[in-house]
Structure formats: C-alpha cells, structure tokens
Amino acid sequence: MKQGTVGFVDDKWTRVGSVDEIPRRGARTVNTHEQKIALFRAADDRIFALRDECPHQKGPLSQGIVHDGCVTCPLHNWVISLETGEVVGVDEGTVPAFPVLVEGESVFLDLNHRDK
Fold first, then answer.
1. Which structural domain range is residue 13 located in?
2. C-alpha angle with apex 104: 115 to 53, nearest 5 degrees?
3. Which of 18, 37, 44, 73 is the one with CA 20 to 30 A from 81?
4. Cβ–Cβ < 8 Å for 65, 76
C-alpha cells in the first residue's frame, strides 16, 4: 500500500495521485492536515475515497478487502459501502466519504466536502 501527500489544484479539487497508483481491488492512502484518507479502486476501475477509519473501532479500511462496491474492515469484518461510507448489514455506522473526480489518469478529491 502506497502513501502519498496531497497537492492543491484549486479551492475545490486537490490532486492526490493517479489511477495507476491505486491497485485494482485495493487501496492507497493520502494524508491531509486533518486526517488520513483511503483511495479505493474497484474491479471496474471506479475510484472511491473514505476516511481511513472504520466506524466500529477505527480499523484501517485501506488494509481491508475491496469487493462488490464495498470494503471489509480487517479488524472485525464490518462491511462499508465505498460509495456512501455507510455500514452494510446488521451493524450500524458511517464513515465520511469524499467526492472523487478522475480526469485522464489523475485523481482529485474535494477535501472541503463535509459529509452529513
């Protein structure tokens, strides 16, 4: 898993790397001043971004298994939707999700977005 730092592009979008830096069905992390964010690449190459912290016991989601539009936390197998950040199944909770923009091979995040 590769870690990176962010590079500011404008007031809304921040370039955080390229699609090829994120393994298919895997993750990499970027650090901001406030938090660590996990970038996920689904099997169909869609890119998602969640705070790298399970809502259960703050497990590192970037180390989880990516499958079926979700990530499974490596600590206690909680399943979180990559699209919404909501826990799937009988457990309850939400992790902040960040808007992602992909232009060519570049991946951008809206770090100013405030989830619910």
1. 3-110
2. 30
3. 18
4. no
